[in-house]
Write a structure and sequence with these properties.
about 425 residues, 2 domains, seven-stranded mixed sheet, five-stranded mixed sheet, about 45% helix, about 15% strand, binds glutamic acid
Length: about 425
């Protein structure tokens, strides 16, 4: 499928191929499982504040529809491309299946730089994208959520645009909304808190003391910052963080509360006085017990996998580790990998809770949400760990295997129409 050709799509396919080969999935079943079911690309003309009209490109890829509606985020980033979105949709499929959610995977994106758009431009862009997607989405068809560069406000505009079109309010059309319009308590923090929970669980499994552990977090967005706070609450010292401007390092520990205040005021962590500047490359190679890539894909590569110095690699981002890096990490038995589709699954799990609450118009307390979230994460963690130990395969191979085999089984039992 040449239309999806992109380094990130090739990477997702390579991961899939390894699993398919390991379990000897027949070739005709492989093709059905691997390629996205549908994709849509739209041109989005938007009135800019200066009076010009600019046309942006938006995508949505729905990977498979076998288990229910498709589910996944919407990304605003200059590098968004159809192949990248397709890879992210594929990972959503395995992630939802691993967590036992009744969803296929999807992802959307608009190639734009949200940091250089005003709020009114962002609103017009979001509403136009939603309008263009109306034939393609629905609460029982495809449900969007925030991803890189989007947030609760983006979801509120989407929900409003869709509801105005429908003629009545449809909260379940998106998740990750503000709580005041049908969002779930705990959704905003769910990905980062899930990451924190699973790291704590892993420290327990491999015998690391939180109080004697240091963490480096790449990315100080919604996921990275909440994960950093969550680790700090378990007693871990945060010695490195970064954002698009570069990294910060302080071997004595970074004051997260001060950093958060600074970042809120300046919209960047650059220039924060409580740490030294390091480059993104240096950050990933800092000595620590826990390394948390929480930014873009393809950060741990064949070039730096031998140089990272951690005991736990917790993949809060989607696809941060390339297959070339995996070959090197497979030899480094001292490193325990929490693979992305497990590590960051907290977000989509609480999105599922939000969707269920919206459909029932019956809302849960934050304690109920968190309790149910940790139960699902615990079950998935134990299942992946058990398979990895039984088959003597990596945690990534085990996690992908559980997800892919669930979808394979569902496709098989439903049969092929006509
Ligand atoms: N964008 C998030 C992810 O990559 C969340 C998706 C969702 O909640 O649907 O998992």
């Amino acid at each position: 499928m040449d239309i999806y050709d992109h380094p990130t799509f090739r990477m997702a396919c390579q991961q899939f191929d390894r699993v398919a080969e390991y379990w000897q999935i027949p070739a005709d079943e492989q093709a059905r499982l691997k390629f996205p079911k549908r994709s849509m690309t739209v041109a989005l003309p938007v009135h800019m504040d200066d009076g010009r009209t600019k046309v942006f490109t938006g995508h949505r890829v729905q990977h498979h529809l076998t288990l229910g509606p498709t589910k996944g985020g919407l990304r605003y980033h200059p590098a968004v491309a159809l192949g990248e979105v397709a890879a992210l949709a594929m990972w959503m499929s395995w992630k939802c299946a691993l967590a036992g959610l009744p969803y296929g995977g999807a992802k959307g994106g608009i190639a734009c730089d949200p940091l250089h758009l005003s709020q009114t431009e962002l609103e017009r862009l979001t509403r136009r994208y939603t309008q263009e997607m109306i034939p393609f989405i629905g609460e029982k068809v495809d449900v969007m959520a925030p991803d890189m560069g989007t947030n609760e406000q983006t979801m509120a505009w989407m929900m409003d645009t869709y509801s105005v079109h429908t003629g009545y309010t449809v909260p379940s059309i998106v998740t990750g909304k503000p709580v005041s319009i049908g969002g779930s308590l705990g959704r905003r923090e769910s990905t980062g808190r899930g990451v924190g929970y699973l790291i704590n669980r892993t420290m327990d499994t491999i015998g690391l003391e939180p109080g004697h552990s240091r963490a480096v977090v790449q990315g100080f967005g919604n996921v990275g910052s909440v994960a950093a706070f969550s680790l700090a609450k378990y007693g871990v010292k945060i010695v490195g963080v970064s954002d698009v401007s570069g990294g910060l390092h302080n071997a004595a520990g970074i004051d997260l509360w001060e950093l958060e205040k600074y970042a809120a005021a300046k919209r960047t962590i650059a220039g924060f006085a409580g740490a030294e500047h390091v480059t993104n490359e240096q950050l990933l190679e800092l000595p620590c017990e826990i390394l948390v890539p929480a930014a873009m894909e393809r950060q741990i590569t064949g070039g730096n996998a031998a140089k990272i110095k951690c005991r736990i690699l917790a993949e809060a981002a989607n696809g941060p580790t390339t297959p070339e890096a995996d070959v090197i990490l497979d030899q480094r038995e001292e490193i325990f990998i929490l693979p992305d589709i497990l590590c960051n699954a907290g977000g989509v799990i609480v999105s599922y809770f939000e969707w269920v609450q919206d459909l029932q118009s019956f809302f849960w307390t934050e304690t109920e949400v968190m309790d149910k979230l940790f139960r699902i994460l615990e079950g998935a963690f134990l299942q992946v760990l058990a398979l990895s130990r039984k088959q003597k395969v990596s945690m990534r191979m085990a996690a992908l295997s559980v997800g892919i085999k669930r979808v394979q089984e569902a496709k098989k039992i439903r049969g092929l129409f006509p």
